[in-house]
Amino acid sequence: MDYIVTLFQSLTVQAIAPTTAAFAIAAIGLNIHFGFAGLLNIGQAAFLLLGGYGFAISIERGLPLGIAVLVALLCALIFAFVLGLPTLKLRGDYLAIVTISAAEIIRMVGRSSILTSLTGGSNGITGQSFNGPFFALSPLPDHATTILWFTYDNNGVNGWWIRIVGWALVGVFTLLVFALSRSPWGRVLKGIREDEDAVRSLGKNVYSYKLQALILGGLIGAIAGIIYVLPSSVQPDGLGRSTTFFIYTALLLGGAASVFGPVLGAVLFFVMRLLVQTLAQDFIPTSIMNGQQATQFSYVLVGVALMCLIIFRPQGILGNKRELSFSV
Amino acid sequence: MMLLALLASATSLAFGPSAAHAATTTPCVVDTTTGCIQGTLLRSDGKPAAGVTITAKLGGTSLPSKTDDTGRWAIPVKAAGTYTVTLNEKTLPSGQYLANAKTNDRQVSITLGAVAGTIFQLSTTKGAVIDNNNTGSDFSWQRLAQQSASGIRLGLLLALAAIGLSLVTGTTGLQSFAHGEQVTLGGLLAYTFANTFGFNLILAATISVVISAATGYFQDMLIWKPLRKRGLSLTQLMIVTIGLSIALQYAFQYFYGAATVRIDTNNPKTIDLGGVVLTVQSYVAMGISVVVLILAGLFLLKTRTGRATRAVSDNPALAAASGIDVDRIIRLVWTIAAGLAGLSGVMLGLVLNGVNWQTGLQILLLIFAAVTLGGIGTAFGALIGSLIVGVIVELTNLVLPGDFKYATALFILIVILMFRPQGIFGRRERIG
Prior knowledge:
The complex is a heterodimer.
Chain A: H1 2-15, H2 18-36, H3 44-60, H4 65-87, H5 92-110, H6 116-119, H7 132-136, E1 144-147, E2 150-153, H8 160-182, H9 184-194, H10 196-201, H11 206-229, H12 241-254, H13 261-283, H14 291-312
Antiparallel strand pairs in A: 1-2
Helix pairs in contact in A: 1-13, 2-8, 2-11, 2-12, 2-13, 3-4, 3-5, 3-11, 4-11, 9-11, 12-13, 12-14, 13-14
Chain B: H1 2-15, H2 17-22, E1 35-40, E2 53-58, E3 61-66, E4 72-77, E5 81-87, E6 97-98, E7 106-110, E8 115-117, E9 122-123, H3 141-172, H4 179-196, H5 201-230, H6 234-256, E10 270-273, E11 276-279, H7 280-302, H8 304-314, H9 316-321, H10 326-351, H11 359-374, H12 379-399, H13 405-419
Parallel strand pairs in B: 1-8
Antiparallel strand pairs in B: 1-4, 2-3, 2-5, 5-7, 6-9, 10-11
Helix pairs in contact in B: 3-7, 3-8, 3-10, 3-11, 3-12, 4-5, 4-6, 4-10, 4-11, 5-10, 7-8, 7-10, 8-10, 11-12, 11-13, 12-13
């Protein structure tokens, strides 16, 4: 019994972690691309990375917090333009290859040795060099608080303040998507996903709507990047292709084109993976599977889960099959 | 060469700094109040240089250290900051000089509880300049020739994987993200048979290629054909390949760990051909690639099945209507593609001196670039595309630092997709 309680507690700790919130926000952004507009962007991690870089480097250069967030958003905006203007007319799978390549270029340039003074090269930027202003903003008193079994410093680097802000942002963006999906703008977007030519024949500028969707999802991705790097550090190799694929897995698990799908998916993604890893570590003898192999085993299952999801239940848990169409 | 360095750096990243630090024998232990500035000093012949004094200065404090018998040195620091690290050139062994002497007084930033490394390089000539980033500052025709040769080598090995992928994409429309893992699989299998089982290299390579081809056959039988019958869209199928790629990457780590394993543990011999130095294995690998590529070309152009393959690639519906068994052709294409990818992996492993779980992952986008550049579905185009991509990747080193070499290839991929998405030899109607 004790084991189950401890396991449950460790899973809930993972569920409310800032990284989970960051993933949820990134998945909300990706949902606007993939779920609502039908754009196969597999470079979402680059939006996170640019958000993280823009924010961290601005603060390192002494800019105030608000300006730093604006710089992060500006980086994502420019990237979305550069990415979207030439490619949104291409077929879906070409867009996929362009976005993944562009994301890799951002990562490689970020980790290159000649930019070490700016981006820290492959070592990245340590958290303490940019997270000060954010934690100074916290109105909470300086001590640890325990709610249920969750004990964190109020203003610690990985404490309550970042959790509160992170999940509040998840709430804000979920509401935003809820409102947008019912707005005329959202309906046009869904129309483009279903039948581009029909929407075009109604006199709508399909290209412009797609670009707007790409930008909005990218900006949300940049905010996700800020939340992702604040409790840790900016690591170019930590925001590579795998991150994008995991965000996809989370989105498809929860349900693309649904309002709460990305959030549910992100939480489930982390909790299930940790559950598999913990159970494998605790019940499979180390002679068969050691601790590191248990982690790798859990990621093998992530890959298999992604395959099974897209084959057997492409609408995920909360999605509606009729809402989902794959562009090619 | 730079590819090797890139692989090595990727491996060390995967391991993290702790593994590297555990190997240090010097008495510098990182804790919350201590940081270590450290490095290893090697003579120009690769042997450790002992007894050399290296000093770190911050403000008025000066912290000296001496390299030990293994060439290692470490300076424990109790205050974070940017130190000036200097090697005392008078303490160097006789006949050894500091290369890049201008960078002797170098700035090293360190925080407490962390390790900062810096490497001094030695040379047998006084005032030598060794350029590790291979930037364009020391352009020479000799380097151009060397890099071009490396580029053609990379291109030929990419071509093996690219032709298979091009045929798969041509016949099924699918862009397989798991093709990189097929390359890795070939290399890792060769390692297993050559090292764990002790087979000779040729036998090990042959078995690896056969098993690789078998994985292609069974993949199509168990996954791709049922999914085609199920009527999954291409986008869905592409996401399936992404899932497969993730699962395989971690499965490789599960069985082989994250380290680079060497298929052939002997030190490779090199051949100097008019100033271009490549290993013997490189020449053999290039030779095998050329032979296999010619055979693949003859198969496609001269045999009945090969013609049927090109027919399916051109227009599956029309091919089926004219009596070609499209499913049989696709099964064959998957088998050949996986086999060629496996062969590419074996030879990449030999040429790059090792293979690890992300060998294929790192070249996947280069393969995509090669296939797109040449024109999807055209085997000949994939060959030309691969050679161009390979040479561009290696020549990038002449003008830009080594870490940009893949970025250039990907940039070219994006430019092609924007201006000529059908590639050099492709036809417009494939673009959709």
